[in-house]
Amino acid sequence: MKILVIGYGEIAEEFAKVNRGVEILGIRRNKGTKLSNVKIIHQDYSVKIPEVAKNLSPDWVLFFPKTRDNDIESYKEGFLSQLDRIFNMFQTSKKIFFSSTRVLSGYINVEIDETFNTKPTDPQGKVIAEYERIIQQQQSAYILRLSGLITSTSNFVELVVKKNLFSENKHINAIHISDVVKIISSMIEGNKKEKLINCVMPVSAKYSELFPKFKGETVNAKIKSIHYNNPENFNFNSIKEII
């Protein structure tokens, strides 16, 4: 199997490590890899997707949007600039597009899943919602909507507490990188057919359940998945297992 990864990064690297029999071509701006099953092309995909990527004739295309900055133009460039080209260049390839639960930021103190409409509260979230809308009009195109990513070296929950990034009580919508890799692998192996999956731990928690300084009603939504919510699918079912 041949996979093209546009915006190759940490998740793609972890996927490649556990799928050594897959031939992967990764496009990224910098850095390389020591994995024998991965070839890296250093290219800014928002400027150009190289012809060698098309010549690969990939079975799957994985698109990880990258933004240079947090401004609205950077989001448009990172999420939207190459969508048409990807669909035109790889018409026969199946595609997984990575999104964010940021598109659900307008929901407060409720439980929501993939049946709820997007409800972004900022211009960047609206760009991501438009990105999802375009993808959902295509055949053989799937969206994995990532919640807060936890890795072996990065835990945003600990960072919030250590640096006092906010004081409001919130639902912790998170997922471990190893479980993102499991979802990707399941889709590529043909075990998941859903067009949209919220990638979030199946057992939720609030900041107030872990840290006494957080009190009151939650100011965000509890995000769930109706497609991939069986605890047996996960290495980490709850943030409580990691903190």
Topology of helices and strands:
Layout: E1 2-6, H1 10-18, E2 23-28, E3 38-42, H2 51-55, E4 60-63, H3 72-80, H4 83-89, E5 94-100, E6 111-112, H5 123-135, E7 141-146, E8 148-150, H6 156-163, E9 174-176, H7 177-188, E10 196-199, H8 207-210, E11 222-223
Parallel strand pairs: 1-2, 1-4, 2-3, 4-5, 5-7, 6-11, 7-10, 8-9
Helix pairs in contact: 1-7, 3-5
Task: Tell me the span between the first and last alpha carbons.
Answer: 37 Å
> Major sheet: order of its strands?
3-2-1-4-5-7-10
Oligomer: single chain
Which residue ranges are poorly predicted, with pLDDT under 50 across at least 5 consecutive positions? none
Q: Report the mean per-residue pLDDT as an integer.
A: 96
Q: Which range does the strand content fall in?
A: 15-25%
Biggest sheet character: 7 strands, parallel
Instruction: Say how many strands there are.
Output: 11
Query: What general form does the structure show?
Result: globular
Helix percentage range? 25-40%
Task: Report the total helices.
Answer: 8
Radius of gyration: 18 Å
What is the H-and-E element order?
EHEEHEHHEEHEEHEHEHE
Helical/strand content category:
alpha/beta
